[in-house]
């Protein structure tokens, strides 16, 4: 094994925990950035161009008939082929969380539809499902199995928010393990079926799953309910006859206590297990070789690389499979770095250069990296690991197409996520829309005190009606801190006393008086 450091030339702030990589035609594409996409790359998908140990990012494109794909973090992802030996494939993306920390229950299909020397175009389609549809989740796995000429996807594990009926104010956004149900998804008919197996008692997340033909092996994982990493090793066998599918589970010995591990394939039947955690505060620096045979699996310890001091002493690490026996590993950067949220990256090659040749990999690999912080085991933090799931290669495109984040406005510096006041609680990682007019940024209003400064409307306790009024009316606004000061500095305007003219008395209307002779004549005629 060899370990080599990779330098990020530009836009390293986009490479944050929770994203995935897609491998199309030996090119690697980044998906699931932290935050919402910007104008320079509205699709949120980038080509990762690695040349001479330098990494650059270039925007990718979607076809006109594609659906919207949000930047999902920690989704389940795998390849889908029409059969085990087919050349063409597409990616399945299920679940994950959005930049607003909402969990997705949608499933997408992404395929390559056009390729030129300077541009690659994808098609993204959302698939509607019926039946026992899996709930929104993250940290789970999805694999495709083939049996009797048919194919289905198998989904297992993950975490989701606490059900609404069980939430409290103090733990409103807390997460729990999903039920240990196995879901079979038939994409031809768009239906889902769930299976409850007696061998699967506890929910798992951030485990490793390896699929081969009609069998899936589930290794390791973390149980949030018990806060343990049991040495699990399950064998799921899926039979697809003409009638109902048959799903069986077998508990095998020889499992490993690990979560957030990474698997890379070095041959048709041989894999390498790298990284992960023994516990919340202990990284797993040991590597293992996994060999699959006919209905059997063998796990043995292998020679580990010579880890650098930075990797040995860091609190956490993350990464994922790059394909062809390579793994991309990342560790947090130093706090004194000029670029915030930057990470250091390494490429671990698990097989020799003479073996690094083009191979047809018919086995599907799906591994998830953990979202728990090894220090405090708190989910949904920015110290979560992110997921790589494709292979890094160079792309013969001009450097003019390279995405440059400096060419556009940086939202982190324009004030959307600033601390506007002492009681400000707006955070980019936990914020959710409060007003109906908000989409992916909090509503802000300008305080006219002094040179002026921006504050969050939600922190100022403004109602939506008042916010709309202030945005439409040409009036000055003062925040809660400066409103009293502004009133004290104002000089009261001198009020002019208005003299009211006296009211004229009402004149009585004049009436005509009739002579007595006329009255008598009138009365005589009236009574005749």
TrEMBL record:
Signal peptide bounds? none
Query: What name does this protein carry?
Result: V(D)J recombination-activating protein 2
Where the protein is mainly located, per its record?
nucleus
Which biological process, per GO, is one annotated for this protein? chromatin organization
Give the CC-aspect GO terms: DNA recombinase complex; nucleus
A Pfam family found in this protein is: RAG2_PHD
Taxonomic placement: Eukaryota, Metazoa, Chordata, Craniata, Vertebrata
Q: Which UniProt keywords apply?
A: Chromatin regulator, DNA recombination, Metal-binding, Nucleus, Zinc, Zinc-finger
Organism, scientific name: Erithacus rubecula (European robin)
- InterPro entries in the record: Gal_Oxase/kelch_b-propeller, Kelch-typ_b-propeller, RAG2, RAG2_PHD, Znf_FYVE_PHD
Q: Which family does it belong to?
A: Belongs to the RAG2 family.
Binding sites annotated in the UniProt record for Zn(2+): 420, 424, 447, 453, 456, 459, 479, 482
Gene name per UniProt: Rag2
Residue ranges annotated for the Recombination activating protein 2 PHD domain, each copy included? 415-492
**Subcellular location as annotated:** Nucleus
Offer an example of a GO molecular function term for this protein. Answer: sequence-specific DNA binding
Q: Taxonomically, which superkingdom?
A: Eukaryota
